[in-house]
Specification:
Layout lengths: L5 E4 L2 E4 L10 H5 L2 E3 L2 E6 L2 E5 L1 H14 L8 H14 L5 E9 L13 E8 L7 H6 L1 E5 L20 H13 L4 E5 L5 E3 L4 E6 L2 E4 L10 H12 L4 E3 L4 H5 L3 E6 L3 E8 L2 E2 L7 H14 L10 E3 L1
Parallel strand pairs: 8-9, 8-15, 12-13
Antiparallel strand pairs: 1-2, 1-7, 3-6, 4-5, 4-6, 5-17, 6-7, 9-10, 11-12, 11-14, 14-15, 15-16
Amino acid sequence: MIKTELIWMNGKFVKWDEAKIHILTHGLHYGTGVFEGIRCYETKEGPAVFRLKDHIKRLFDSAKVFMMEIPFTFEEIFEATKETVRVNKLKECYIRPIAYYGYKEMGLSPLNNPVDVAIACYPWGTYLGEEGLKKGVRCKVSSWRRIDSCMLPPLAKLTANYANSTLAKLEALNCGYEEAILLNFNGKIAEGPGENIFIVKNGRLITPPFSAGALPGITRDSVITLAKDQGILTMEADILREQLFLADEAFFTGTAAEITPIREVDGRVIGDGSRGPITGKLQSEFFRVVRGEVKKYLNWLDFV
């Protein structure tokens, strides 16, 4: 990780190495936090944060699920995010806002604890690597199932949820793959550990619905919009594991992963084993959009 100079914490900027919490912070022990992953891209008009309003709205929605009262307004978090990028003089970066129950009392109920909020940003390339963007990644269907809404809320971006993702990721890495794919309790495709998933079959784009356990990804939503605007038939539907094996193309979407092709799953080559034409077309358009090169989507950019 590349350090930057300052992190926003509870309304003030502190130096990177001084951004610390108490060891008895509730969120550290019980996973009682919510967070976002956001990217800022360099454009001809300067740095621009991609779909910042949508990310902050999801942060507040996730907090509501956790009965968490964020002690700052939507507008304050919005401006603080841009200011954090600005004071660190970054042209491109990954942004991590987090709100969590802090230090006061231990025990399962967090409600008597303060809610702390922090925003950090730092340079970070695509999550699954530049090579993955071009050639695709090898994936393993995990033995760990995606959390179900009767256990934890998949629609919320809770820190606790990502223990499930970490176990799937570790299994995939230990088996020699770059990434995992999780099934839900009905055996249908849900998503990756930190990404939504799409397949292409006979020119049609398909992605699991939220009812399958998929997070309402903002990159996912962006890709659906881009595909429809380009005349690509797009639908939400349950996907069987064997449908994934037999897909013409497959790819992940996410703030960290951006649009990363999947070239192999469980030893089965997807399509011709390279980035497919529809994946390539959407990937190319996406990167034009985030860099402010497509006027139609400039409303998705908040300039720093």
